[in-house]
Amino acid sequence: MADLPDKRTAPIDWYLAVVEAADLSDKRYGIKGMNVWPRYGFRARRNLDRILVREIEATGSEAVEFPALIPANEFAKEKEHIKGFDAQVYWVTRGGLSELDVPLVLRPTSETAMYPIFALWVRSHQDLPLNVYQIVNTFRYETKTTRPFLRVREIHFFEEHTCQLDEDRATDRVRSNLDAFARMAGAFCLPYLAVRRPDWDKFAGAHYTIALDIPIGGARTLQIGSVHHYRENFSVPYRISYETATGGRANVHQTTFGLSERLLGAIVAVHGDERGAVFPSEIAPYEVVIVPIPTATARAAIEAATRELADRLARAGLRVFLDRGEERPGAKYFRWELRGVPLRLEVGGRELEGRRASAVDRLGTRSTVALENLETEVAERLRAFDRELMRRAQVAFRESFSVATDLSQLNGSTRVRVVGWCGSEACGHEIEKAIDGALLGVPEGTPPAVEGPPGPCIACRRSDGVRWAFAAQPI
Amino acid sequence: MADLPDKRTAPIDWYLAVVEAADLSDKRYGIKGMNVWPRYGFRARRNLDRILVREIEATGSEAVEFPALIPANEFAKEKEHIKGFDAQVYWVTRGGLSELDVPLVLRPTSETAMYPIFALWVRSHQDLPLNVYQIVNTFRYETKTTRPFLRVREIHFFEEHTCQLDEDRATDRVRSNLDAFARMAGAFCLPYLAVRRPDWDKFAGAHYTIALDIPIGGARTLQIGSVHHYRENFSVPYRISYETATGGRANVHQTTFGLSERLLGAIVAVHGDERGAVFPSEIAPYEVVIVPIPTATARAAIEAATRELADRLARAGLRVFLDRGEERPGAKYFRWELRGVPLRLEVGGRELEGRRASAVDRLGTRSTVALENLETEVAERLRAFDRELMRRAQVAFRESFSVATDLSQLNGSTRVRVVGWCGSEACGHEIEKAIDGALLGVPEGTPPAVEGPPGPCIACRRSDGVRWAFAAQPI
Fold first, then answer.
1. What does the radius of gyration of chain A's CA atoms come to, in whole angstroms?
2. Which of B154, B225, B310, B431 has its CB 3.0 to 4.6 Å from that of B212, i.e. a possible disulfide?
3. Does the structure show a pLDDT above 80 at B1?
C-alpha cells in the first residue's frame, strides 16, 4: 500500500485516501454521492448509532419510523421550509408503468412527514411532551462536489422531533438536547462549538438554530448537527394543538435535533494521522486486535493462547478481532493502524512464557498486560487511550481559534476567527466576505481563545450590543 | 374501548383492529400502504431485528448497507429479474428542478444495487465466501389492497446476499440459512413450512426458491420469507468472477435470504386472541408490566416497592414497564393484554405484606413470585410462557393441514391441503384452480399430517415421481 497524502498540506486528499484505504465507505457505486457502507465502515456506523440511541433515550425520547416518501401537498405546507428545500429534493413521479397523481418527495428531513401524524397523536396536554426520534436515511440532490460522510446524496441521519406545552418548555428541550450532545461528543472524544446561527442562516422554518460545529484544520469548520426551536412555525400550518388543563386550546411549540453521518467524517478528520484513522474506543469497529507472533517452536501454543485471549475479551463484552492471516506481523500492524483500532495485543514466544501480552495503543503508547488480569487491564488501557485522544483533540481545538480585531486579518486566515460582532446583518455579510466563508454566529457560553468581553464590532466599529462571534470557512 | 371482532369468523377485521388498538402500526399516513411505526410497534420491530441480526451473524454474515436508489441501466441487466419487477417499482425522475439523465429505481430488493460492487469486492478465491446482509426498507408500488405488515408499499426488509465458490457451496449456504431461520422461528414461537416453490412461482432470476410459509387460519398461508439459489444467473451479467486456486477464472454462485416485516404480522396473526396481541417474550416491547394496586393505607409503600421491582428487573436486563397511570388496575390489565405483554405483576397491600407479587401471564396462567427471588422467578415464568405459546402454536399448526386425494376436496377447503403431485406444470395449475389459490410446492422434509409416501397425483392420477405438495390460499 502506498503512503497516505500529507494531512497538513493536502487535507482533502488525505481524508479521501483514509476513508477508502480503511474501508469505511465505498464510493464506486453507480450514483455520485450515494456510497456503499462496507463491512468495516458499517461497524463504525452501528457503534455511532448505539451512542446516539443510548444518550437520547436517557432523556426520555422514544424511537419511531415514518415513511421515506412525502406527498407533494404535505411537503408544501410550511412556506419557508419548502423554499429551503425546493432545489435539492428527489421527486418520485412514476409508480410501475404509470404517472403518479400526486408526486412524492424522498424525505430530505421529516418535519412534513411527521407533523400531520403528530396532529393526530397530540390531543390533550396529557399527551405532552411528545419526544420521538428516528434514525433513517435522508436524500438531497446535492449539486456540489460530494465527499464520503461530509457531503452525500443519501445521508444517514438522526432526527429528534418534539412537541412541548409552550415556548419555555421547548427552550428547555433545546437545552436538554445540547446536554445530550455533550455526552455523545464525550464518547467521540470530539470538542465542538454550539453556535446560534444568524437569522439569515437558520434552518428553513426555524425560530432559531443552534448549530454544532467542529474545527477541522485551518479556518475550516464542519457542521455535524443542529438543534432548532420552531415555536409555532410548524404547529400552526400542521394544526398540532391540544386541549389545555383548563379546557382551552393551544398550539404546541416544537423542537428538533439533527445529527448525521458527518459525525463519522469529523471523527476521521479530527483524530486521524499520517498512519490512517484513529477511532475512539466506543466507535471503533474493533476495540482490540490480537496479532499472534508465531515462532518455529511455539506456533501451536501461541495459536491456542491467542484464541483463548480473544474468547475472554469477547466474553467480557469487548469487540475483538484475532488476526490469523498469513501475512507477516508488520503488515498486520500496518493494516490495523490504518483502520484505527485503539489497542493491539501482540503475543509471541516470550510473551507466552511470561504469561503476558505486549500492548500498543493507536497513539503509540506501549505497555505489558498480565494475562491473568487481561480483561481489566485491557479495559484500563482503552480508557487511558480515550483520555489521551480527548486531551490531544482539546489541545488542537484550542489552537484552532484566534481573535481578530480588524477585517484585514480575516483574509487568508489559517484559524477560525473569533470577532466582535454588533449583530447586524450588514456587518455579518462584510465579515463573511472578508473571510471568504461564513459568520457561524454567536457561541452558547464563552468562546475559546478569548479573555473578557469583545471590543467593538470588527466591521462597523460600534460598541453597542457587540458579542463574540465566529468567522470560518464551513465545508 | 370496543370489543375486538371475532378472530375465527372475521380474521381480517380482527387483525386490523388488533394492529391499530395495540399501537403497532399507524396507517393514517398520507400515502396508502406507507405506514408509520409508532413507539410501541417500533419496539417490537427492534426486538425482531435483534433476533435476525444475532442469528445471521452467528453464521458469519456481516452487515453492510447499499444505496436505496438504483440506476435504470443497472436495474435492467438481468432480464428475468427486471421482468419480475417492472410493473411494481417507484421511479425517481427529477432531482431538484431538473429531469435526471438516468431515472433511478427505489430498490424493490437489492440484487442490482449490490452486484456491480460485488464484482469489485470479489477478486480471488480468498475473498470467498462473501456473506453480507442488510436491514433496510424496500419499496413496491403495490396495487392490491394494503394491510399493515402484510402488504405495504414501504417494506422493512432483511436481505442476505452471498457469493460462493461453486454450486455445492451455495447449496450449503441455503441449508445454513434454513437452519438460521429455524432458530429465529424458535424465538418467535412460530411453526412454519419450508417449501420449494414450483418453477413458475420462483423469484425473478432464481435457479430455485425455498419459501417460508405460515398457515394463518383456514386454507390461508402467509409467505414471510425465502431463500434463493441463483447459481450463475446474476454473476454472469454482473461479471462477478474470481481467480481460482489453480489460476483459472470462475463465476461465483450466489444465494439470497430475505425476510420482511410480515414476520411481525405473522406473530400477531398466529398468537393473538380475543383479547388482542400475544407477543413471545423476545419480541415483546415490554416483557413485564408491573401494576401497583394502591390501598388507602399502603399507597406510598406500594409505590416505592413497585419502583424497586422495576429497577431490579431492568438491571437484570429485562424490558419492564411500571404502569403508574391514574386508571383503575382493571383498565391497565385490559390495555396490556391488548398490547400482548407476556407477564403482568400485581403488587397490592397483601402482596407487599407477604413479600411477593401476583403474576399473570398473557395465556392466563397465575402464580406467585417471591420478591427475594424476583429476577430468577420472572425469567422462569417467561420461559414457561414461551414454551406454552409454542406448544399451542404447534397444536394449531398441525391442525392446519389435511390430506386431499381428489381435486373436488380442494374447493372451499378450510385447511391447507397436502396432495400428491407429479411435478408437471399443467397439473400444478389444475390444483391451483381447484383450491382457488396456489400450489405452494414441495416441502423440505416430511410434511405435517401425512403418513408414508403420497398416492397418485391428485390431478393426472399418475404415480410416477409423485411427491407431497401443499395447496393453499396465500394472502
1. 25
2. B225
3. no
Name the pTM for this structure: 0.96
Note whether ipTM > 0.90 here. Answer: yes
CB contact under 8 A, A117 and B91: no
Nearest-by-Cβ selection for B46 from A26, A63, A113: A63
CATH architecture designation of domain A11-271? 2-Layer Sandwich (3.30)
CB distance B29–A67 less than 8 Å? yes
Q: What is the mean pLDDT of chain B?
A: 96
Chain B residue with minimum CA distance to A86: B96
Contact B69 A34 (CB under 8 A): yes
Q: CA A334, A336, A338: angle at the middle one, nearest 5?
A: 70
**β A467-474/B62-63 pair status:** unpaired
- Please tell me the predicted confidence (pLDDT) of residue B93: 96
Superfamily designation of domain A288-384:
Anticodon-binding domain (3.40.50.800)
The answer to whether B117 contacts A29, with C-beta atoms less than 8 Å apart, is yes
Which chain A residues are within 8 Å of B36, Cβ to Cβ?
A: 64-67, 117
Residues in A touching B87 (Cβ below 8 Å): 96-97
Residues of chain A with pLDDT under 50: none
According to DSSP, the residues that pair with B292 across neighbouring strands are: B347
Instruction: Tell me which residue in A37, A96, A117 faces B29 most closely, judged by beta carbons.
Output: A117
CB contact under 8 A, A143 and B96: yes
For residue A141, give the nearest of B91, B96, B154 by CB distance: B96
Question: Among all residues of chain B, which has the CA nearest to that of A100?
Answer: B90
| Residue B121 C-alpha, separation from nearest chain A C-alpha, in angstroms | 10
Show me where the domains of chain B are located: 11-271, 288-384, 401-474
List the single residue in A with minimal CA-CA distance to B120: A28
Closest CA to A196 of A443, A423, A466, A457: A443
pLDDT band for position B2 (cuts 50, 70, 90): low
Q: Which residues, in sequence order, are CB contacts of B429 under 8 Å at separation 6+?
A: none
